[in-house]
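Justification of resources, computational component.

The compute hours requested in this renewal are based largely on the per-chain cost of generating structure records like the one below. Each record pairs the submitted sequence with a full structure-token output. That output is archived, and it is also reused by downstream analysis tasks.
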Amino acid sequence: MLPIVSIVGKSQSGKTTLMEQLIAEFKRRGYRVAALKHSREGMEVDRPGKDSWRFAQAGSDAVLVSSPGKLALIKSVEHEPDIQEIMRMIGPDFDIILAEGFKKSNIPKIEVYRRELGSDLLCSHGELSAVITDGSLNSDIVQLPLGDTVAIADFIEQTFVLEGQGNTVPTSPMQEDGQA
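The structure output for this chain reads:
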């Protein structure tokens, strides 16, 4: 089972920038990292005219593009996949999964909070493992300084990777049944 944590926060709070920094820090530490991004509006990753776009337009339910350095899967879905479905597609070849968004999922969350975006947190205290902030909150929740990527990565490593406090998501149906 893979450790996973989601970075959540209001729009323009710095989630994507933090994700970039954390990915680079975990790679520097020797981890194999997978990144997930949740998009509320849907997405279009193919460009009109490219072969993969043409295959999808022709009716293919899934298009896989393979090259010497990359592999991409574009798959039509009839419902929004839950985190377990996504994890099965990713597979077990990683040390940590960093997700951006997925605020309604049951995976551990760390919220990026900036005072200028409002005085309330996006998630309830019970849903959060920590808050990354540009100030301080009157709360007993773990607070980490925005901009201190090493401290944030240390917290994630200790809490989710090394200690593995029940924060993993099964990557195969057998693991879900406890048969792995």
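The CA atoms of residues 131 and 159 lie 14 Å apart. The helical segments are 15-28, 51-57, 83-90, 149-162, 173-176.
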